[in-house]
Batch of 4 targets.
Target 1
Amino acid sequence: MRLVTYNVEWFASLFDDEDQLLLDGGRSGRHGVNRETQVRALAQVFQQLDADGIMIIEAPDTNRHRKTVQALQLFATEAGLRTNKAEIGYANDTQQEIAFLYDPKVLTAVHAPIESAEAPRFDNVFHIDLDIDAKKDAVRFSKPPLELTVTTRSGREVSLIGAHLKSKAPHGAKSDDHAVSLSIANRRKQLAQAIWLRRRVEQLLADGRDVIVMGDLNDGPGLDQYEQLFNRSSVEIVMEQDLYDPNAHSLLQPRLRVMPSSARFYSSESKRYFSALLDYIMVSSRLRQPSQNWRIWHPFEDAICYENTDLREALLMASDHFPVSLDLDLE
């Protein structure tokens, strides 16, 4: 079984209010890429992935006019994908939903949220002292994680969580000092969300469940200077000792020469591109197998992607993130 996490930049901008694809030359959410180009690039990438289940981060939105499930299923039909059934959890108001697109002939996926005293439902409020002032702060997810029970044809059940944690970027900063304070505040909130997510993982593991956490965590070990203020990254908090992602673990190794990355952004200030590892698939111990294959479909770092010119260009046009896949034996 192949599972994928893929952050699709502003997928919502490719649909009208009737959830129909906009195959025209209008502006997409990607800089310098029109809607038709992005749609066709995404179709090609999804076809090449040939996944059984795809956790889509920044999926089309659900609101008074639009429906995420309808939009994704229409996209799957137009692109000729076998992953033609979609599931979402709690809708949000950011135009960036978390959704799971899957092949119903291979598995079933059901939104199965749980809660506990230590970890409330992800559409609720989490109370935690973020700044050690003996006063608890109220934390919310702007994009509540998607909790699924995935069942294979053989009856194997897995708890699958799709997550998109708070960005640390100081958007809206009015000065250098303001940027620093925003970055620290955003990291505090991101760490609180990671702790909340980690408590849910612990609850599932205590119940004897196999767990997979996948998505865009907007963080990684050693990713920025603010991590030193808080000792650990969000990724390390979510993983602890009982979840595993080889890309995340590789960043914890000393003197790593080649840094894996799953996203590529352009800096208008420096006129350069920079890369970061933000997207992960973490699995619990019983799901780790010798034959597993984690793969970041990076057009410049994955040799097969680079040598396939059409796929390489499609990956660059489709999103500022690249898919991460994992092949699992879940029969």
Target 2
Amino acid sequence: MTQVALVFLHSPLVGPVTWRSVAAHLAGAGFDVVAPDLTIAVTGARSHHQAVAETVAASLTCLDADASVVLVGHSGAGPLLPRIARTVSHQVSALLYVDSLLPYPGESWIANAPQPLVDHLRSLVSNGELPPWHEWFPPEGLAEVLPDPQLRAEFIQELPRLPFTYFTEPTSLDDWQGRAGYLLLSEGYQQDAQAARQAGMPVIEQLDHHLAMLTTPATVSGSLELLIRTTIPTSSGTR
């Protein structure tokens, strides 16, 4: 059985609490887990994407040199997975996209986003930065998906102020020819899930909401375990 470590990558728009409970569940199931904080990497002045990849690579020093890793990217982390896979020194067994955008090699987020959203974000920029993600939309939206006030406050506390250059920076031309899978959590990513199917990826649907890993971590963990077994049929978490 192939033994893998899971590397949980939060969207650059949010913080690492996104994956905390799911990582704990899967650690309890026998997987080695790593969940780096990417917020400092994405708020710096240099190449944001490469800074993220190098931060992930540095976080894997806790693993054995011969460990095989599965990169698990939520939302905006998805398009960065191929570059991260090239940058880390460990063998990468698979990329798992979770309610995520798929890679758009050589293009920027802005080039792939709906124009009304792009226009809205441009209107929010101040001194080259966007406000934290929860301020982009009416507050009742976040309260609906994260009704627990303590959890919602912890989530908000981690939200970075991203430089607008993050959204205009083209992603790398790196392509991924290895195994990949997709976990769909919300209706908003149906198109990406369909594109994943057309690309031959196994797709698992657990329709809930975009931040379901925060509110139903046990269910999301189970779906991820199934996706791992489907994507890497000989995988095992027990080391």
Target 3
Amino acid sequence: MRIATYNVEWFDALFDVHGQLQADGEWSARYNITRAQQAEALGKVFTAMDADGVMIIEAPDTSSKRSTTKALTGFAEVYGLRTREVVTGFANDTQQEIAFLYDPDVLTVHHDPKGAAELDAPVFDQVLGIDLDIDATRDEVRFSKPPLELSVTTQSGATLRLIGAHLKSKAPHGARSRDEVMRISIANRRKQLAQAIWLRRRVDSHLAADEPVMVMGDLNDGPGLDEYEHLFGRSSVEIVLGEGDTALFDPHADQALRSRLGAHPTTSRFFIKDKKRYLQALLDYIMVSRDLQSKSGDWCIWHPFDDPRCWSMPELREALLTASDHFPVTLDIEL
């Protein structure tokens, strides 16, 4: 079985308000790429992955006029994907939903946020009370993009919990001076670490119930990604991974944590205008609990330059670069 996570940059902009795919010559929300070019590239990437389930980060919007489910089922039909069913959770107002696109012949999937009454690990559409700045005052933390918590049953009867997450970006939007950049960046990191703690507590609650857990998505963080990490000691990735017998495992995160100054895998590629260069970062993960680790085979980042299979197929290589500024991560696992 193959499970994937894929952050698709501005997927929503490819659909009209009726959920119809707009694969035409108009510009997409991606720089210098038409909607037809991005749509066709995504079709090629999803087809090549051939996953049984894909956690889509930045999925098309759900609102009073738009439907994530309608957009993604239509997309799957256009490109003949076997992942043709969609499950979503708590909608948000960012035009970037989290959705799971899956093959109903292989998986049975439900949005299943358990434990609504837990004060220290509430359901993701609620509020977490936590002291963010050590001033003996409880701050209220909310998810701008509530993680998607799923109950999954495979064709063979195996069950597990899947959590798709897109943690808050740390970019200091609105800053007008160096001091403001620092203040906003530190405040955003506090919020992001609080979200990571909240996510980890939900993981612990499932592990305590002997439920296998898989956490996947874009954590917008990684070991050594910025200088503010040193103020707090750990990245949000390390918090979600946890420690000891209940620790989750992701080989790419493990490699990065072991060699902070050396080369490590990357899952995204962004153009930095003022530097006139591309920045690559490890942001996307598939973390599994120990009981799933023993059943796991190959983790793969579909990187157009770093993965020999992707590099050797020019059509797929170009599609990966055109489709998004993130690359898919897949896990082959026996379930």
Target 4
Amino acid sequence: MSDKAKILDKIKKCLALSSSCNEHEAAAALRQAQKLMELHGITDLDVQASQAQEEKAKAGAKSKPSSWENELASRISALFKCRVIFHPSWNCGHWAFVGCSASPELAQYTFTVLLRQVKRARDAYIKSNLKRCKTATKTRRADAFCAGWIRSAFMAINDFGQPDEKTSQAIDAYVATNYGELEPLKSKDRNGGRLSDKSLQDFLAGHRSGRDAQLNRGVGSTDQPLAISNI
């Protein structure tokens, strides 16, 4: 634990005591928290941001993920009341799930497991149904299959709603402190928002396959993915 993290931990403990029923204890704790913040240059935003953390998962693209992978990350982020940010990289991009408590770790794990499953199903579908197609056609139709797979995998999951105000504020503060200004994520939709007759059949095949997804239920935010603007 860094020195700043240790100071933040002390401040949070003082702030927790400041809500004590004992008026004198509460006042003393609040004064101590304010003193520590002033002494170490800690802001209210820093304190809020320290309530959140992030976990990263390897993405399937370097700089522009496919629309179906975007949807997978977005749905998992919502499920676990997190915010998801895409990090482009010259080598391999990754997704950062930002949230409170154990939510980021659960989101990261679930994304990794489901991405592995949908890729395995995709490969099997290409070998059995698309092996005679040209490369571009094969990729586009396989994307439609993955979109159907993901829709099906999440059909049985209830909407757990938005994160509470405290969680939202902590996530906002964390993102502002660690990332600054972000831009909307531009994903790659090889089907152009429309499915041909063949791609629709691929989507339906993926929908049937997605019923076998192994998905643990959890809780989470509906924020759409964002992205760091430069590599």
